[in-house]
Design a protein that fits this description.
Low-confidence stretches of chain B: 1-40
Low-confidence stretches of chain A: 244-256, 290-298
Number of strands of chain A: 0
Number of strands of chain B: 14
Largest interface: A-C, 118 and 98 residues
Distance between the termini of chain B: 69 Å
Radius of gyration of chain A: 25 Å
Radius of gyration of chain B: 27 Å
Helix content of chain B: 40-55%
Order of helices and strands of chain A: HHHHHHHHHHHHHHHH
Oligomer: heterotrimer
Chains: A mainly alpha, B alpha/beta, C mainly alpha
Shape of chain A: flat
Structural class of chain A: mainly alpha
Shape of chain B: globular
Mean pLDDT of chain A: 83
Largest sheet of chain A: none
């Protein structure tokens, strides 16, 4: 971009403002994140009493040892990666074509169908009937309960549809149709390649939702071998909490847990977030300005 | 697609056949090798769920449990739940999908029995025929049978009795070293306490050269649901109110009448006193906003330098850590005024600490109920109960051979005995009967709890257990009454807890008290008191 | 393929005559579209609509022995119980204040952030900023509130110290009824603003670069480029998301409010979700909490409906 660059005074001021603002935002966001990292290797008592600010104090890797030393973590990772990849794939296969259809103005059922979809964002039968349904479908205590139920998220569907509507010019389909291109063909050959940005966004949304989901496992899964990472981490986190229930709930257990409770709390965040961190750059590159249109036209 | 499914199915069938064969083989092998393995082939398979403490190790590592299962001739497949039980339970019960046994402290509540009739087995008959140990519990401790019996006379869940726990959960600590440094006496009245705390505040009590780093007084965060242990509500004892099991919603009994301290003038007196302390900057400023972790962390001070002067807790090393514990002394209940004639009292928590409701339940669908009951019976065996609570014989408990036992110190030196117990066994979360005649030397943690309770003992002994204790553990409310009580209490606490902290921190109780009383009325407190009085009278007349 | 083209051409012809094709003919014409949306419809009906019979619970007593739909019909009893309850007015007020503040302040924030990130010219800085701001989204609520307690503490927290050094005195922002909502909303923005900006960044990436070039040739400054090119590009997304967010006027989450509650801020922090939780843990109130939930849903849906109607009329953008 930028064939002729006429940098005016105003533009320079503007750039300076952008830099200052960007730096400000960066610092505000980065410090607490940095704090999480140093807190995960510092003595928890020092953290809680505000003695840890810039550098870790009372350095110890107890938290990470405790987390990584738990064999369930590795099963958890394996399961979560499986559920996330497969689940996201299924999500996209179900959502993208539907969003395309709903973006077609000539498809007359779209308004009724949209309403049917939107209603489910608000009204639900509640946990009990849903549990009974899963049981009836023999999905409880299987990996499929992570994959198929609710695999169309209406919020994501709407975002994708909006995107299709606004970024794929109507004329494009008309032109393609005259060339003998069907909806199938147009969707696969034109609409999808043009929409890498939105596909990566909702792909990311779905992926993260699967990654963070612990409720499904909590309610529908009993077997230890099927537990995803988040459940395992939640267990580790809880077993190292300081217990406030007093003697009745095990107050005496507090003393031991005290020193490292927060280490584990913060360590858990890092252990569970790190893998996602590696995914992001692959997705980010699809947000590069103008990449899509240019590539199609070229 | 169809092919794939068919293939998968046939694969599964083959797999099960192979698995079946191999498991038969192993059974035979153990039968040939092991001494008592012959029975394993005919073992009754059961499923069970336990809501265990998050610290507790895997059940498969508990030798005592394995032995108990063997003796009962059962082989149990355990599902271990450490968190979010309430959410899991909802789906489990509503779908009728319950395992043969559910173990855990009040894991299934009386309200659940009422709401899900037919789901759980009435154990009355089975206890008669198959559980002599439970029968012993019921006859030696008849009050446990009261705990177990529902309004309709049926028994769905079995209780526990663990005997060794003290009469109160809350102990009172003061930093003796600070008192000595400043040449002060241990306070005995509210006014003396005030003066001591002022001295803690103004002088360099901990002697580190900084007169401003002392926190004279700290207590557990109140939260937003109910009062709990280690909170200044125990000071109501100074005014003659006996809290029972911390009186979370304010209810207590005085001379056979059920009352609520939230509308009592003595509560107003207490808040006025606490407000005086807070205004003089004697109470930790963050006392209402800190979480429990912080509450515990702050008291750990900095190396040898203590941070907190006067506080409450379960046990001193738990409260301030091992390094600082020797600095603290254990205080008797305070009098409100020096010349008061009223007997001082203290929170009486013996029932909550030693009894437990619905520790184990059985599904009505259980195929072999006799076998399941035999296993339950094993848990109530004197020797097994001891191991349920403290861990396996050999590793956790020493058998002295003369019929007496002693708790062993933790194998992991870094661990305290309390944590060791929770790690090794079901501990307080298990069904058990520790009989009053058991000869057992307790671990150091429980011994020091006992010692630290001594200054409170006189007040606890003076409590009239007949007329001044609310026996909430033994009273069963009907479903409708229970739900009225629940909703009204939620409303009541929302109002009361907000006012409690506001009045302590900002004052204003005198001008707002009357308006507050009329608001409390709207929450339905009177209806609750009526209901509770009715049930209390009924219970006492039995 | 050829047949398909014919059908489409005929459709155009029909339009030309101003006559609508019959439903059957349309169905034949659009059979591919129907096939593409069918899986989504099946899944939604199966997992969302079939369990909806459970909504009855709000109007019935829950009777386990008779099944979910067999309990005694109570009509609007549980709704009345809620509306007449001592807490109703406070709960509604607190819930609406918190969620409206979240929408009013939280909605524009990611848009501004996306526009800002889009203006950063140095590629590496842009990527770093983008990656950093989206990370807080992954902090679980428990840890988030724990983090706030540590950092905001007036005695020991770094932000607490910062506030007092700014001359605001030793305010305990965790304790006051005045600061609860700001702290809740600002921390929410801190945590989710970056994540929510992703969708806008994606939308901005579809802008044709030639537009920027030609605007430069026309002598437009950076402000004008933002106003006339960037904003219009993300406007449809903004409107749709705004309409959707109106569907959560009573939609405060449960966990964060609950964890941030303490007895001092309780007068402003008790919301519908936390209240339902509290009555639920004390005694099983399945029907009562279903009724409160349904009440919540209805209000939200009405707001969404209204917002959508406005958007359709004003901007010609509609959810359905």
């Amino acid at each position: 971009m930028g064939l002729i660059r006429k940098s005016t005074m105003g533009d320079k001021m503007f750039d300076a403002a952008v830099i200052v603002l960007g730096l400000f935002v960066f610092l505000i966001v980065a410090y607490p994140l940095y704090f999480v990292i140093i807190a995960s290797v510092s003595d928890s008592t020092l953290v809680a009493t505000g003695k840890v600010t810039i550098f870790p104090k009372g350095f110890s890797l107890f938290g990470y040892n405790e987390i990584m030393g738990d064999s369930r973590v590795w099963t958890g990772y394996k399961n979560t990666i499986l559920y996330t990849t497969l689940g996201t794939l299924v999500n996209l296969v179900f959502t993208l074509p539907a969003a395309y259809v709903l973006s077609r103005k000539e498809f007359r059922a779209r308004r009724v169908l949209m309403l049917v979809f939107v209603i489910t964002m608000f009204f639900s039968g509640g946990l009990i009937p849903t549990y009974l349904l899963m049981k009836g479908l023999h999905m409880t205590n299987t990996m499929w309960v992570f994959i198929f139920p609710f695999c169309v998220n209406v919020y994501n569907l709407i975002i994708t549809r909006t995107f299709f509507e606004s970024s794929i010019p109507k004329e494009l389909y008309e032109a393609a149709a005259i060339d003998g291109c069907s909806h199938f063909g147009f969707f696969m050959k034109v609409a999808l390649p043009l929409s890498k940005a939105v596909i990566s966004v909702i792909g990311l949304y779905y992926l993260v939702a699967h990654w963070n989901d612990f409720f499904t496992a909590l309610i529908y899964v009993r077997s230890n071998t099927l537990q995803p990472l988040q459940i395992v981490l939640r267990d580790i986190l809880l077993s190292n909490q300081v217990f406030s229930g007093g003697a009745g709930a095990g107050g005496a257990a507090g003393g031991y847990a005290q020193k490292y409770a927060d280490q584990i709390k913060y360590g858990v965040i890092i252990v569970s977030t790190l893998p996602i961190l590696f995914v992001y750059p692959f997705i980010q590159k699809y947000f590069e300005q103008g990449v899509m249109i240019g590539s199609v036209k070229g | 697609m169809k092919k794939a499914v068919a293939g998968l199915l046939s694969f599964c069938m083959i797999a099960t056949i192979i698995a079946g064969c191999s498991s038969n083989n192993t059974d035979k092998n153990t039968g040939a090798n092991g001494g008592d393995g012959g029975a394993s082939g005919s073992k009754v398979k059961l499923t069970a769920l336990i809501t265990k403490h998050p610290l507790t190790q895997e059940l498969s590592k508990m030798t005592w449990l394995q032995e108990a299962e063997d003796r009962a001739g059962v082989d149990i497949e355990w599902q271990e739940v450490t968190a979010d039980w309430d959410q899991k339970k909802g789906a489990l019960l509503a779908s009728g999908d319950v395992p043969d046994l559910i173990v855990g402290p009040n894991a299934i509540t009386d309200a659940d029995f009422a709401q899900f009739p037919g789901l759980f087995q009435d154990l009355t008959e089975l206890v008669e025929t198959n559980a002599p140990n439970v029968k012993t519990l019921f006859s030696e401790k008849p009050e446990t049978k009261v705990i177990a019996t529902q309004l309709d006379g049926k028994i769905y869940g079995l209780p526990k009795y663990q005997r060794f726990w003290p009469g109160t959960a809350t102990r009172q600590f003061i930093n003796q070293k600070w008192l000595d440094n400043l040449g002060l006496q241990m306070p005995t009245t509210w006014d003396e306490l005030y003066n001591v705390l002022v001295a803690f505040k103004e002088k360099d009590a901990n002697g580190n050269g900084d007169p401003n780093d002392e926190i004279p007084m700290d207590f557990a965060p109140t939260g937003t649901v109910a009062f709990g242990f280690f909170m200044p509500t125990v000071l109501l004892g100074s005014l003659g109110i006996t809290l029972t099991d911390a009186s979370g919603f304010g209810y207590f009994v005085e001379d056979g009448k059920v009352k609520n301290f939230l509308v009592d003038d003595r509560y107003k007196q207490l808040i006025t006193f606490l407000n005086k302390l807070y205004s003089a900057d004697l109470i930790n400023k963050e006392v209402f906003t800190q979480d429990y972790t912080k509450y515990q962390s702050v008291a750990r001070g900095n190396g040898e330098t203590a941070a907190v002067g006067f506080t409450w807790g379960w046990e001193i090393t738990d409260r301030v850590g091992n390094t600082l514990a020797p600095q603290y002394a254990f205080m008797s209940p305070l009098k409100a005024t020096a010349n008061q004639s009223e007997q001082v009292s203290w929170s009486y928590d013996f029932n909550a600490l030693n009894y437990g409701t619905n520790m184990v339940t059985m599904s009505a669908e259980t195929k072999n109920k006799e076998a399941a009951m035999k296993f339950i019976n094993e848990l109530y065996d004197p020797k097994v109960s001891m191991q349920v609570l403290f861990g396996s014989l050999g590793t956790n408990i020493e058998d002295k051979g003369d019929g007496s036992y002693a708790i062993l110190p933790p194998a992991d030196a870094a661990m305290d005995p309390g944590t060791w117990k929770w790690t090794s066994s079901w501990a307080d979360n298990g069904p058990m009967y520790i009989s009053d005649s058991l000869n057992l030397t307790l671990g150091t943690d429980m011994q020091s709890v006992g010692k630290q309770t001594e200054p409170l003992q006189a007040a606890l002994d003076a409590v009239d257990k007949e007329k001044d204790v609310l026996p909430s553990m033994f009273i069963k409310y009907s479903t409708a009454d229970n739900s009225t009580l629940g909703i009204n209490n939620t409303n009541l606490m929302n109002l009361a807890l907000a006012k409690w902290s506001q009045w302590i921190t900002a004052g204003g109780i005198d001008s707002e008290w009357d308006a507050y009383l009329s608001n409390v009325k709207k929450t339905g407190l009177e209806a609750n008191l009526e209901i509770m009085q009715k049930y209390y009278d009924e219970y006492m007349s039995k | 393929m050829a047949a398909q083209t014919k059908v489409i051409t005929r459709k155009n012809a029909n339009h030309g005559l101003g006559r609508k094709p019959s439903i059957a003919m349309e169905f034949v014409r659009d059979y591919q579209l129907w096939l593409m949306i069918l899986p989504a419809i099946v899944v939604i009906i199966l997992f969302n609509y079939i369990p909806m019979y459970g909504i009855q619970l709000a109007f019935r007593d829950y009777d386990f022995t008779k099944g979910l739909t067999g309990g005694e019909w109570r009509g609007l009893f549980y709704f009345k119980q809620f509306i007449d309850s001592y807490m109703f007015a406070d709960l509604m007020k607190n819930t609406i204040v918190i969620s409206l503040a979240t929408i009013v302040l939280g909605f524009p924030a990611p848009i501004l952030l996306a526009l800002l990130i889009n203006q950063v010219r140095w590629k590496h800085a842009k990527k770093t900023l983008q990656t950093t701001v989206y990370l807080p989204h992954f902090i679980s609520i428990v840890v988030m509130v724990g983090l706030m307690n540590v950092l905001l503490s007036p005695n020991s927290g770094i932000i607490g110290h910062l506030l007092s050094s700014l001359g605001m005195g030793e305010v305990n922002v965790l304790a006051s009824t005045n600061t609860f909502v700001p702290v809740y909303v600002l921390s929410d923005i801190w945590q989710h603003c970056g994540w929510n900006s992703i969708i806008y960044l994606a939308a901005l990436s579809t802008v044709d670069p030639q537009l920027y070039d030609s605007s430069k040739i026309d002598g437009a400054n950076r402000w004008q480029t933002i106003r006339h090119i960037d904003l219009p590009a993300i406007l449809p997304t903004i409107i749709i998301l705004l309409v959707l967010s109106m569907g959560s006027v009573l939609g405060t989450g449960f966990e964060k409010v609950f964890l941030m509650q303490n007895s001092l801020n309780l007068p402003v922090s008790e919301v519908i979700a936390t209240y339902v939780y509290k009555i639920g843990i004390i005694s099983n109130q399945i029907s009562y909490s279903s009724a409160i939930g349904l009440f919540n849903t209805l209000i939200n849906f009405i707001f969404l409906f209204a917002a959508n109607a406005i958007s359709r009329r004003v901007a010609n953008i509609s959810l359905w």
